[in-house]
Amino acid sequence: MSQVYSKSPKDCASKESFINTDNFKYKKLFCVFSTFFTSLISFILLIWLILHPSKPQFSLKEADIYLLNLSNSHLLNSSIQLTLFSKNPNQKVGIYYDQIQAYAAYKGQQITVDTSIPPFYQGHQESNLLTASLVGTGLPVAPSFAYEVGRDQTAGKLVLNVKVNGKLRWKVGTWVSGRYRFNVNCVAVMAFGPNIPPPLSARQGTLCSTSL
What we know:
Layout: H1 9-51, E1 57-70, E2 75-87, E3 94-106, E4 109-110, E5 115-116, E6 120-122, E7 127-140, H2 145-155, E8 157-172, E9 175-176, E10 180-191, E11 200-202, E12 206-207, E13 209-211
């Protein structure tokens, strides 16, 4: 003999009411968190749009080439000293420079290894002088390198590119942004000839281009 269990309408209504209440609580909690995160993102975006930080400014104050010599047909030894001027143009935004590296290039070829510059914080409208010694030992270069240098020596000038790249963060009050990669390109034009003794120098204070 089998037994048949029956549930009264009252029991079913009670269970359905419990499920509906539980679902309502989850939906309410989800709405609260969604509203909170949306408001937070909107607030951060509003601050960003109001302040809209300008890119940092760089200029090349001085560059001196002490050594630029091929040890054989394709290996280069180099030594370059440079001084950079860095400025934060923002009135309400500070800048953390977390990583900075510099190197020199000639005719599209890297002629020194990457050299690290110590990280630092730059306050509102603050300026800093950055110095670095760039060197290269036995760096491979294109077969045309010696020809290009000789042609520039005949022309009486040498064009050097100083490249700076790294990562920075913006600081607004106590809020600090994520990291942004930046790239700087500076062009130095130096007098160059057979009768000009080293170092070859550029001191014209060239303004550099900066991209984020």
